[in-house]
Hints:
Blueprint: E1 7-11, E2 14-18, E3 23-29, H1 44-56, E4 61-65, H2 78-94, E5 101-105, H3 109-118, E6 122-125, H4 135-142, E7 145-149, H5 167-184, E8 192-195, H6 204-212, H7 214-218, E9 225-226, H8 232-238, H9 247-260, E10 264-267, H10 270-283, H11 288-292, E11 303-304
Parallel strand pairs: 3-4, 3-10, 4-5, 5-6, 6-7, 7-8, 9-10
Antiparallel strand pairs: 1-2, 2-11
Bound molecules: 6-hydroxymethylpterin-diphosphate.
Amino acid sequence: MAPRPPLLWRCRDRELRLGARPLVMGIVNVTPDSFSDGGRYVEPAAALAQARRLRAEGADLLDLGGESTRPGAAAVSAEEEWRRLAPVLEALAAEGAGGALLSVDTTKAAVARRALELGAHIINDISALTADPAMAGVARDFQAGVVLMHLQGTPRTMQQAPHYDDVVAEVCGYLAGRLAALAAAGLDPARLAVDPGIGFGKSVEHNLQLLAHLDRLAALGRPVLVGVSRKSFLGRLTGREAPGERLAGSLAAAMYALQRGAHIIRVHDVKESCDVAKLVAIFGHEETDDVVHQPTATAGGARPA
Ligand code: HH2
C-alpha cells in the first residue's frame, strides 16, 4: 500500500490530519436498544466511564449517540435524545474529552445545536443532513465537522429489500451530490467527510462491494469514515450470531477498509482497533522507521490546529 497524501478535516477550531495513520472513532451508545451494546451505557455515569475508557485506549474521536439506528429501532423525540446525551456530553466537554474530538450521532438539528453549544466538534448524521431541513444551517453556523452517510430507505425499513443496479456508483454518486449541494448552501467542503453506510439499506454483497471499492469514495477528495464494527453482515459471513463475538471479523474488516481507502474507522472495540490502525500505518509506510519511532500516545491528528 503506497503512502497517501495528507488530507485535512476541519472540525470547528480543530484540524485533523488524515495521512499515514488512520484515526479511530470510539462508539458510546447512550441508548437502551443499540444492536450490540443497548442498555449497557444508558446511565450517564456508565456512559461517561465508557467514553473515558475508550479515550484512554486511544480513541481519536468519541461518537455519542442517543438514538439507535438499528433496523426496526423505535424513534425517539429530540427531547428524549437530548435527555440521554446532555449529562455525558456536558461532563466530557468540561474535561476536554481527554483531547479527543467529540462527535454526536444524530439526525436532529435541535440535538446537534445543543451538542455544539456544549462544545462538540462533529455532527455524524446518518441521513447526510437530509432528515432535518435545519441541520445544514446548524452545521454551517458552528463550522462543525460533518459526517455524511449514505442510507437507502429509513432505519425502520432499510433492510427489507435493499436494491441497487450498481451499489458503488450509486453510493458515490449520492455522496458526491450531497457534497456539491452542501457546498452550494455555504458549507465549507473542508469540514465534510463521507461514509458509505455499511449495513444501512445494504445486503451482505452490497457491503462487500462497497468495502472493495472504497478507493472510489476516497476519490471524492474527502475523508472516508467506515463503520463495520460488530455489524450483522460479519455475523452472516462468520456464523457468529452474537455481536459480542464478532471482534475478529470486525478487525479484519476494519483492516481491509483502511487498506482500500478509509481514513477513519468507527468502532466499539477501541483498544484492538488502535492496534490495527497502527499496523496499517506501519505496513503502508515506505520509510517504516518514520512511523515506528513516533510516540504512540500522541500519534493522532486530534490536536488543535
Ligand atoms: N453505524 C451505526 C450508527 N451510526 N454512523 C456512521 N457515520 N457510520 C456508521 O456505519 C454508523 C453510524 C450503527 O452502529 P451502532 O451505533 O453501534 O448501533 P445503533 O445504531 O443500534 O446504536
